[in-house]
């Protein structure tokens, strides 16, 4: 009788609550996002998680498309030589990829832009001035690269994006090290919003000059010639460079999508606005609890130590970027008199087909040539001096 009573009590007792981080680890990004969005009145932590999971969904879908089509191999010239995002990340091999077409690259960035927009829609509902805290263990974060709904080997987020986003320290992580746990708060919502604008800006810039036709033409020519005999050069592969140059020339030397160009400019300006909001909010924080990006009195859960004044110094770099986008400062050009330069803002406001050789020689740059103050490298040099050898990594992190 006593045993039966204990059994009934055990069945009636609630199971140990699963944290949101653990739920992501067990079920993945898409199922967790679906459950959170089905809530009638999500908590502030859940609203932030919805925005964050939409952000991660954009990356996951891009990785799935890359894996499904073998895009990293088929468009390797574009990915490596042109630095196209998401085409250089290490993924598990696909033994039977689908045929690759240039339209898939356009699809990738259109989808990424849509996911970033969904992330911002969620984050915009967070009430101003209210704090929250969401703990996330990066050991729970994974991307369903092969879209089979199962957490497989080589799908760990830190294995895929860690080295590129966090530097060489994550190239070969210590398996005995404790899990990396970050407590995201209200200031981090501004950082995430800024980053979503950055990725939307990149996506719209690429879609301004839709690369699909140029990629297909270059890949068709490559197939027609067949493989070049002999080993690939160790340092400079002219064949891959020629393919990439043809893809780039085919993309930019065509009538652009003016609406996409305007959207890209607006997103890049919003990056700066939201980045300023982040540094304003983080400066008010008095806690020091597993921070993502710390203020001068905090430490980061990632193990980085930011020099004092990092926020102010980085804001100087972004102020130059804002002035360039608004046309208050001009880009220097290799030829011509002092006191003149290229109006970057007008290149977004009035985009035109771009001849690469024309920009090298100058005739294609003449429509954007103006008299006025030219941006200097002073702010960037101050930031590089503050960061030492980690300036490039910090730029990615700070956005």
Structure in words:
- This protein has one domain (20-305).
- The model is unreliable at 1-15 and 74-82 (pLDDT under 50).
- Helices cover 55% and strands 4% of the residues.
- It is mainly alpha-helical and 399 residues long.
- The longest helix has 26 residues, at 44-69.
- It contains 17 helices and four strands.
- It starts with a helix and ends with a helix.
What attributes does this structure have?
two-stranded antiparallel ribbon, 399 residues, disordered N terminus, two-stranded antiparallel sheet, mainly alpha
List the helices and strands and how they pair.
Elements: H1 2-12, H2 20-27, H3 29-37, H4 44-69, H5 71-74, H6 76-82, H7 102-123, E1 134-137, H8 157-166, E2 181-184, H9 186-208, H10 212-225, H11 238-252, H12 258-283, H13 310-325, E3 340-342, H14 344-349, H15 356-361, E4 369-371, H16 378-387, H17 391-398
Antiparallel strand pairs: 1-2, 3-4
Helix pairs in contact: 2-3, 3-4, 4-7, 4-9, 6-11, 7-9, 7-10, 9-12, 10-11, 12-13, 13-16
């Amino acid at each position: 009788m006593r045993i039966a009573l204990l059994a009934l009590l055990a069945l009636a007792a609630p199971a140990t609550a699963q944290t949101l981080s653990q739920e992501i680890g067990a079920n993945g990004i898409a199922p967790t996002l679906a459950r959170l969005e089905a809530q009638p009145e999500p908590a502030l932590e859940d609203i932030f998680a919805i925005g964050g999971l939409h952000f991660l969904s954009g990356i996951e879908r891009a990785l799935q498309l890359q894996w499904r089509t073998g895009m990293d191999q088929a468009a390797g010239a574009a990915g490596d030589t042109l630095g196209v995002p998401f085409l250089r990340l290490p993924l598990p091999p696909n033994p039977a990829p689908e045929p690759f077409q240039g339209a898939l690259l356009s699809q990738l960035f259109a989808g990424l832009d849509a996911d970033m927009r969904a992330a911002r829609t969620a984050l915009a509902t967070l009430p101003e001035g209210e704090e929250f805290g969401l703990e996330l263990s990066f050991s729970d974060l994974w991307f369903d690269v092969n879209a089979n709904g199962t957490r497989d080997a080589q799908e760990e987020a830190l294995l895929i994006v860690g080295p590129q986003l966090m530097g060489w320290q994550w190239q070969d992580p210590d398996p005995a090290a404790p899990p990396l746990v970050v407590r995201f708060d209200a200031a981090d919502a501004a950082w995430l919003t800024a980053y979503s604008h950055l990725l939307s800006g990149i996506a719209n810039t690429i879609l301004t000059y839709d690369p699909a036709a140029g990629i297909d033409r270059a890949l068709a020519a490559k197939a027609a010639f067949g493989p070049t005999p002999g080993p690939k050069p160790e340092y400079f592969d002219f064949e891959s460079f020629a393919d990439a140059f043809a893809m780039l020339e085919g993309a930019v030397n065509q009538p652009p999508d003016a609406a996409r160009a305007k959207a890209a400019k607006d997103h890049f300006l919003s990056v700066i606005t939201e980045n300023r909001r982040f540094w304003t909010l983080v400066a008010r924080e008095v806690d020091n609890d597993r921070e993502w990006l710390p203020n001068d009195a905090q430490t980061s859960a990632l193990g980085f130590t930011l020099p004092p004044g990092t926020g102010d110094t980085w804001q100087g770099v972004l102020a130059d970027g804002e002035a360039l986008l608004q046309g208050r400062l001009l880009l220097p050009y290799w030829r011509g008199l002092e006191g003149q330069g290229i109006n970057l803002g007008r290149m977004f406001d009035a985009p035109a087909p771009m001849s690469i050789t024309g920009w090298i020689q100058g005739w294609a740059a003449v429509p954007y040539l103006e008299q006025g103050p030219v941006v200097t490298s002073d702010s960037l040099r101050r930031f590089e001096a503050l960061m030492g050898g980690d300036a490039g990594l910090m730029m990615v992190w700070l956005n």
